[in-house]
Amino acid sequence: MADEVEAPLARYATAWVLRHPAVTAAIIGVRTMRHLEDALRALDVRIPEAHGTAIDALVAPGTNA
Fold first, then answer.
1. Which of 7, 4, 1, 3 is nearest to 43 (CA)?
2. Phi, psi (deg, nearest 5) at residue 27
3. What is the pTM of this model?
4. Which residues contact 50 (CB under 8 A, 6 or more apart)?
5. How much is the pLDDT for 13?
6. Distance between first and last Cα of the chain
7. Count of structural domains within the chain
8. What count of other Cβ atoms lies within 10 Å of the Cβ of residue 47?
9. What number of other Cβ atoms are within 10 A of residue 31's Cβ?
10. Which residues lie below 8 Å from residue 42, measured CB to CB, with a gap of 6+?
């Protein structure tokens, strides 16, 4: 799914966390300025609703994995 929106998996995952209405901030682990700049680019990733539906089908919301 990350490939479909042309985003690296880590950036897609951060964007996924940020799209959740209960999340006010994502905790990112960066060591360098380059890592920070890349992590901030997650704000530009738009995850289609179809992706949300597909992921929720794999792991139901509220599931502890």
1. 7
2. -90, 115
3. 0.81
4. none
5. 93
6. 20
7. 1
8. 18
9. 7
10. 7, 11, 12, 14, 15, 18, 26
How does DSSP assign 7-23, residue by residue?
A: --HHHHHHHHHHHSTT-
pLDDT classification of 61: cutoffs 50, 70, 90: confident
**pLDDT greater than 90 at residue 46:** yes
2 found inside a domain: no
Give me the domain span that covers residue 15. 9-58
Mean pLDDT of 1-13: 95
- Rounded distance, CA 22 to CA 50, Å? 20
- Residue 64 resides in a domain: no
37, 10 contact by CB (below 8 A):
no
Sequence-distant (≥ 6) Cβ neighbours of residue 56 within 8 angstroms: none
